[in-house]
Amino acid sequence: MMLPPQLITEIKQRRVLLFAGAGLSAALGLPNWSGLIDKMATDLDFDPELFKMLGDFPSLAEYYLLERPDRAEFGDWLRRSWHNSSIDVAASKAHAAILDAQFPIIYTTNYDHWIEHAYAIRGIPISKIVRGDDIADVVVGDAQVVKFHGDLDDPETMILTESDYFERLRFESEPRSETAIRSIAIFNPFRGI
């Protein structure tokens, strides 16, 4: 894939933010939404294929957490499933490219810790932002990893259900911590290529 020359220049000048979605983790062999649906549906004695056919993943997650309200338990399952010791993030070309590009801010919807582990392996410090309060701990000059849909270490922050998504979209009820996270995007506007 050829990147536009201006984008390459702006990456080198550290003026580009990266948005890393689920595809980044899927490249490491982690389950995607389909894998999560399998887990939730099976635990509830439902046919996972029915929910895949309907495409109503947030509703299944909503029902799952109504029936099994302990997000920490679900987070523990995700941690065990997604942080298998056989995964070698150092061998990931995508993660290496992210580190090589030296993005100042990385937005991710992934709950896992592989971006953070990739930085740690190379000894590069980062500031992880899960809640708005984390902004106060950002070290100037460190890359910032903004976990926009939450983090496995803090299951209450994980955006899983339909209600979680709707709550995230409601500006008027948004706590100040979420406003602080959004301010990163305001002061670092996104541009399409």
The helix/strand order is HEHHHHHHEHEEHH
Range of helix content: 40-55%
Mean pLDDT: 83
Q: Total number of helical segments? A: 10
Which strand order does the major sheet show? Answer: 1-2-4-3
Strands, count: 4
Segments where pLDDT lies below 50 for 5+ residues?
none
Cα end-to-end separation: 13 Å
Number of structural units classed as domains: 1
Portion in beta strands: 5-15%
Radius of gyration: 18 Å
Structural class: alpha/beta
Described by the principal axes of the CA atoms, the overall outline is globular
Largest sheet: 4 strands, parallel
Protein name: SIR2 family protein
Organism: Jiella pelagia
Pfam families: SIR2_2
InterPro entries: DHS-like_NAD/FAD-binding_dom
Helices, strands, pairings?
Layout: H1 5-12, E1 18-20, H2 22-26, H3 33-43, H4 48-54, H5 57-67, H6 71-82, H7 93-101, E2 105-108, H8 114-121, E3 126-129, E4 143-147, H9 162-169, H10 176-187
Parallel strand pairs: 1-2, 2-4, 3-4
Task: Explain this structure.
The chain is of the alpha/beta class and 193 residues long. It has one domain (5-187). Helices cover 47% and strands 8% of the residues. It contains ten helices and four strands; from the N terminus they run αβααααααβαββαα. It has helices at 5-12, 22-26, 33-43, 48-54, 57-67, 71-82, 93-101, 114-121, 162-169, 176-187; strands at 18-20, 105-108, 126-129, 143-147. It has a four-stranded parallel sheet. Helix 3 (33-43) crosses helix 4 and helix 3 (33-43) runs parallel beside helix 5 (57-67). The protein is globular and about 50 Å long. It comes from Jiella pelagia. This is SIR2 family protein. InterPro entries: DHS-like_NAD/FAD-binding_dom (IPR029035).
